[in-house]
Specification:
- With 320 residues, the protein is an alpha+beta fold.
- The protein has 13 helices and 11 strands.
- It folds into 2 domains: 198 residues, Jelly Rolls, CATH 2.60.120.10; 57 residues, Arc Repressor Mutant, subunit A, CATH 1.10.10.
- The chain is 46% helix and 21% strand.
- The chain has a 6-stranded antiparallel β-sheet, with helices on both faces. It has a 5-stranded antiparallel β-sheet with strand order 2-5-10-7-8.
- The longest helix has 25 residues.
- The protein starts with a strand and ends in an 8-residue tail after the last helix.
- The relative contact order is 0.09.
- This is AraC family transcriptional regulator.
Length: 320
């Protein structure tokens, strides 16, 4: 284990240059753009045998960029498998952007330029492996990258990566190398099975949309039900959730759908004679609204009458 950088040990005037140097001095090379404010960053490197190493990084907001020139200059091919532990992050490559949820694996093809943005204070583990060591082609890596959660060994590999630094840092060189070989085999299984799953994308998206809709219905009463929470519950990014939702033909966004379902559920409860003694405030909370005034305003906007008027009319008031 080698500490490549710890800015806490450096004078403030030297920290920015040190951050640039540590990323540009690694192989494969990358550049960084450091966010505004005090610079604080730590990078530890754990070698795991030939062409396999683990980086454990953390610190203040920054942007890691691999440029076209760096791609052309570097050889051989590498792939990065990251585990995002803390902070908001976004990766952009090949014209697509993807949020990186905390606790999820991500895959970056290092034979392409990319832009990895840590928008807040962060903590991130990343395995960097040679494609030859893993035994996969660039085409397999590119097919697998957006489909990692579909692999049947995704959770196995995620758990392995999560515990790898702690388990391997006390090992001698021989056992570290053996651990690296086992890690490369797991990554190969992850990438090849994820790449194969791409042929089943449409069917899996249909099933995923159905699971999301059921999840939303089951959690409508939770006032902290957010798109981010739904995505995390299904091990997908927010962007992928929106894509699946749109492909399923929904005219409303997930957030709009939640609001509409809550109003419809509340309206049905107000119509139910058995719930006649339940206060408007209780109905509002049971339907996921923060308070009765907010609920009443939304109800009137949607149906043209107040909840009290709707109930008094026995659920027969005209809606719009």
């Amino acid at each position: 284990m080698t500490t490549l950088l710890d800015t806490d040990l450096l004078p403030a005037t030297e920290r920015l240059d040190a951050v640039h140097a540590v990323y540009e001095g690694q192989s494969p090379r990358r550049s960084v753009v450091v966010g505004a404010g005090p610079v604080r960053h730590r990078v530890e490197r754990l070698p795991l045998g030939p062409d396999v190493h683990l980086l454990q990084t953390g610190g203040s907001a920054l942007r890691i960029v691999r440029t076209p020139r760096q791609v052309r200059a570097d050889a051989p091919e590498h792939v990065a498998i990251g585990l995002h532990r803390r902070g908001a992050a976004l990766v952009s490559t090949a014209g697509t952007d993807a949020d990186i949820p905390v606790g999820h694996l991500n895959c970056v093809d290092m034979t392409r330029p990319y832009d990895f943005v840590h928008r807040t204070a962060n903590s991130h583990d990343v395995l960097i492996l040679g494609n030859r060591q893993v035994g996969v082609s660039v085409d397999v890596v590119r097919a697998a990258a957006p489909a990692l959660p579909r692999s049947p060994v995704y959770h196995l590999v995620r758990g392995h990566v999560a515990g790898l630094y702690r388990a391997a840092r006390g090992l001698g060189p021989e056992h570290r190398s053996l651990t690296g070989q086992a890690t490369a085999a797991l990554v190969r299984a992850l990438l090849t099975t994820a790449a194969q799953s791409r042929g089943m994308t449409a069917a899996m998206d249909d099933a995923l949309e159905a699971r999301i809709a059921l999840y939303l219905d089951a959690h409508l009463a939770d006032r902290d039900l957010t798109v981010e929470r739904v995505a995390a519950a299904h091990a997908i990014s927010v962007r992928h959730l929106y894509d699946v939702w749109a492909r399923a033909g929904h005219e409303r966004t997930p957030a709009q759908w939640i609001g509409e379902r809550r109003l419809q559920r509340a309206r049905e409860r107000l119509r139910d004679p058995d719930a006649g003694r339940t206060s408007i405030g209780v109905v509002a909370r049971q339907s996921g609204f923060p308070d009765s005034s907010h609920f009443s305003r939304r109800f009137r906007e949607r149906f043209g009458v107040s909840p009290t008027e709707w109930r008094a009319a026995g659920g027969r008031a005209a809606s719009r």
